[in-house]
Amino acid sequence: MWAQIGGTPAFERLAAEFYRGVADDPVLKPMYPEEDLGPAERRLRMFLEQYWGGPTTYGEERGHPRLRLRHQPYRINPEARERWLAHMRRAVDSLELPPLVHDTLWDYLERAAHAMVNTFED
């Protein structure tokens, strides 16, 4: 699937496009400890590449993803989830993938976003 999505260049574009949106988002941007989103962009790219069968750099550098645990310090409510999904939708759509590849990638991202919600408070 990594190759069908477009390999490293596609995942680089995906992460860059996603974080262009996050950079100006008043709900999501405060969740990132670094002023420069570059490190977060790299982590997302590496994670997604590894998940979809590409290089295993994420695991080699950071260990098991433990997504819920890594996101636990942040208040991720339904509004934050929907903002994350909106930025990610634009990023995925920008890749202009074949429909089956697009839908498979989007299905995973949507399920992952729902799984990260850890509060229903504002």
Automatic annotation (TrEMBL):
Its cofactor is heme. Keywords: Heme, Iron, Metal-binding, Transport. Transmembrane segments: none annotated. It holds the Pfam family Bac_globin. Heme binds at residue 114. GO terms for molecular function: heme binding; metal ion binding; oxygen binding; oxygen carrier activity. PROSITE patterns: GLOBIN_FAM_2. Belongs to the truncated hemoglobin family. Group II subfamily. PANTHER family: TWO-ON-TWO HEMOGLOBIN-3. This is Globin. It comes from Agromyces archimandritae.
